[in-house]
# Entry
Amino acid sequence: MSRPSDLVQGTLDLLILKILAAQPLHGWAISQRLTQVSGDVLQVSDGSLYPALHKLEHRGWIKAEWAPSENNRRAKFYALTRAGRKHLEREAADWTRLSAAITLVVNLNINEV
Amino acid sequence: MRWLDIVRMRIRSLFRRRRSEDELIEELQFHLEHQIALHVAKGVPPDEARTIALRQIGGLESQREQCRDARGVNVIDHLIRDIRGGARLLVRQPSVSVVAVVSLALGIGANATIFQLLDAVRLRPLPVESPKELAIVDIANRGNPGEVGGNYAGRYAAFTSPLWNGLRNRHEPFSGVLAWSHATMDLSAQGESHFVENGLYVSGSYFPTLGIGAAAGRVLGPADDAEPCPARSVVLSHAFWTRQYAGAAGAIGTTLTLDGKPFTIVGVAAQGFHGVEVGRSFDLAIPLCAQSIINPLGPRLTNRSMWWLGIMGRLKPGWTREAASANLAAASSALFAATIPPEASADQAARYRSFTLAATPGASGFSQLRVRYDASLWLLLGVAGLVLLIACANLANLLLARMSAREREMAVRLAIGASRPRLIQQLLIESLMLAAAGTVAAAVLAPMLGRIVIGLISSSVDPTFIDLRPDWRVIGFLASLGGLATLLFGLTPALRAARVPPGSVIQGGGRGVVAGAPVRLRRALVVSQVALSLVLLVAGLLFTQSLRNLIRTDMGFTPEGIVEADVDMRALDLSGPERSVMRDAIVRNLRELPDVASVATVASVPFVGNWWRSVYVTGPGGTTRAMGRFNRVSPGYFETVGTPLVIGRDFDAAIDTPSAPRVAVVNQTFVRKYLEEGTPIGAEFRPEGARNGEPGATPFRVIGVVKDTKHGSLREEFDPIVYVAESQLAESSSYLNIFIRPRTPGPAVTDGIRSALTRSSSRLAFHFHDVGEITLESIAQDRLLALLCGAFAVVGAVLATVGVYGVIAYSVARRRSEIGVRLALGARRASIVRLVISEAAGVVGIGAVVGMALAAITARLAGAKLYGLDAFDPATLFLATALLFTSGLVAAYLPAIRASRTNPTVALRQD
# Structure
């Protein structure tokens, strides 16, 4: 896990959606929260965050709105849409199933077979 | 709604591209500032902090690029870009665009012209309330009018007044029934007549049943059509009111004269209503019962053998036309049994009793045009379709040629990642734009051409009114034709171009590598063009020759120049013998005119009148019954119309008096068919008597034989004709048809005739016809077919010639180096010309063979419309082929000459 760019395709999308599920945030706050919640393990480069946000918006899973930020600057806030929430539930469930299965396989003692 | 959000967002991103770019920059700027602040807080110098932050985000410009890409490909965006690109291309190559748009406008315009006529006479419903509920009542098993006898007046003489009275009182399937007839009415009180060609007799139920209200005043109602006929009321059409009264409200309540009888204008029918007949408009309508006022001498209202009415009903809710037919059929026998014409023979009465009523579709009204022109219009639509096919083949060729010039562009675009569907979409949109421009031009062209066509089939004697306002059917037809044309000419080039291998052209150094395949394709396209235009040429030539045959046909008399004066003596109120005196005086006055060569009266005008009677001829084998055309003429008729007397003598007013033995002049066909060998002079026959099916008491003796003449139409075989003497009629009719042969035709003659008639009596009503024009009008349909097919054939042949030129010129350009080698190796220039010409001859030859086969198959469709030649006419086929070959070779000559002047050194250096 030393190379965050090797993140499974779509993982970044899932993380963004999950973070936005709690509250609407602007891009900078999302990037801070990403680093904060995943520790140093998942270092998302700033370069991939904004294209991901625009892609999600284009697909209709999040929507954007300009609003004053905490220090009263105009900032673009992203929020989850209804479709985005459904998508997140689906993806999260898939992810849990998949990661559980992978954990199982990884912890398997081959000799026990 | 998710998709709604997406659509909204995409449209927004389309129109606010600039703004969303600005927002993106602002968003990234916001991020950068926070990042820089963070670094600065950690003690990094501001300049350095900015550099780090920028590096972290991966560069502003690349971020913007990535974000734009993340928003995905916008279909609408592409569409607009393609349309813009297409428009640029159209402007950049104006010659291609002009050729394309003009040929499409002609192809689509030809189809639209014919279709709008078909639509107007056949498809369009009447402009009345719920036209789909209307049904025309008719006799299902009518057969030949002669089978029941009687007199017929008008274009839709389907019923007599007694039958109408029966139907009017019992019409279970209908919520209302109406009857109508048309009549020409004289608007002037006296002197030269001013006719309304389109007068209507309508039942009181006419306007209420159709649901037509009044634009001013009121329309006619049941109270206007009663027995005895109440106040004389007339309703004007909106068009007539506008034309004659300038739409003045004051016209309501005033009086106008119809055939010398005063009528009060009670109102104006709703605008846009033109009656229940398609192909005609109406000027004014009077109640049916007014017929006895207009013509007291020929009352029709109780006459069981006067067929003059058309009947229509509006189906009650829940009734289908089939159910209505069954109901009417069940009621038929009682209705017909109660109204048997008194003079019918036993056979005729039995036939009459067997009549069965039926309800036929009535939504699009009555139409004689439909019956007369339906087949011709479908035929012309087919022919126009061929023109469009040729135009499309031409365009496909043109686009293929342009495509090979654009192969490089296509290959480059594919190489840098454009998808093939995108390329096909782009090319199809370019074609669609050409088609759209052509369709719009066609939409403008079609009504103009339509008016020309209506002019061809209309005349002063038989004015045709066709509503050419475009409706959704015509617009839909145009749009689908444009779409179809796009696919026809655009799809193949688009698919071809998208098949270019991306690397090929770049490696090939500018010379098309795949161009070989389209040459075969292009040749095939030209072959089909040649084949189709041969079919067109054959059709055009066939109809032109048919028309020429008709014009040149020997009709047995010379109509050109004869002036027909129709005189109405009713206003003079004369007794029968007095009318005879007046008739003789009028003829004498006319004969005295210096410009007039001869004058005669005639009862049945050729190509207008129709008078058949049975004759009984007694020979050695007993008495036989036969049919003959009858006509009653005055002395001098044969001289006036130019029909030579073969033997015997003309009538003589001094000898053939009412008291003298009955005499007749017959034509050659009558002699050949009915009279014994030997001299016909002195032979006797009897016409039908007062009761149908029995010979009359007085025999006619033949005193002369004239040359055969055509009477019903130019196409007919000669009929047996019997001429009887006007001078033997004790009482003249109130109406006279007078033929006047001037020494030199011109308006001065007509002025002289006018004053001579007025001199005879100031109360005569009269008007004039040109007999030559009447004859021409009887072949209006043939003229239409010949002119339109001829025009279509010319357009088709020009397009095909352009096609041949295009493909040969292209092929020569491709074979430049080969020709260069040939010349370098000592080939003579003439042999190069021969080489190119023979290629063209090959293409035209194959096309001609295919075309001849097609023409042989399709010519049969035209067979029934041809006169004096067969649908399969070898001479015509040969002529059409020769014409095509000539134009094809002329088209190939220019490229051939150019090829022969190729400079070998230049041509070879290019490779």
In short: The CA atoms of residues 753 and 901 of chain B lie 73 Å apart. Chain B is about 50% helix and 15% strand. Residues 508-516 of chain B have pLDDT under 50 and may be disordered. The radius of gyration of chain B is 38 Å.
